[in-house]
Design goal:
This protein is globular. By secondary structure, it is an all-alpha fold. The longest helix is centred in the N-terminal third of the chain and has 12 residues, at 15-26. The protein has a single domain (28-130), classed as Orthogonal Bundle (434 Repressor (Amino-terminal Domain)), CATH 1.10.260. It contains nine helices and no strands. It has helices at 5-13, 15-26, 31-42, 46-52, 57-64, 72-81, 86-95, 106-116, 121-130.
């Protein structure tokens, strides 16, 4: 369970608890590890994930090896392609160092709706296009 900010500050004040915090933080999963675990849980190969999330082959393998960090839209495409829950999607975004989905942002609200409705990637793209909102394939401006 995630700790409150005040509890984290308290831990960092103490010499030993602060050291323990950093040791524990080093063992938290990386984005690459979480993606590999996710693929294993879902019974997908790396190649199947690359195709489903529409990621270039070389970039996808670099992500899985931990050499590159995926962008937010690639993580969202992954979540939609493998039908993650909203909770798992938010965790994936957090571990990937990307902003969480925020319902007051119209595009994020559409993605949240798509996740909650168990839409696939193409269905979510159609929804975004109909609103109109930026595609999950478009470069951020």
């Amino acid at each position: 369970m995630l700790e409150t900010t005040s509890k984290l500050f308290q831990k960092l004040r103490g010499r030993e608890s602060g050291k323990a915090f950093f040791v524990r933080e080093q063992t938290d999963p990386t984005c690459a590890q979480m993606l590999r675990d996710l693929l294993e849980r879902e019974g997908l190969s790396a190649a199947e994930w690359i195709a489903a999330a529409d990621v270039s082959k070389s970039y996808g393998y670099q992500i899985l090896r931990g050499e590159r960090l995926p962008g937010r839209d690639i993580l969202l495409r992954t979540a939609l392609a493998v039908h993650l829950s909203l909770k798992d999607t938010q965790r994936l975004l957090a571990i990937g160092g990307c902003g969480a989905l925020y319902p007051k942002v119209r595009r994020d609200a559409a993605v949240i709706y798509a996740l909650n409705q168990n839409m696939g990637l193409m269905e979510a793209e159609e929804l975004l296009s109909s609103l109109p909102e930026r595609s999950l394939y478009a470069k951020e401006s």
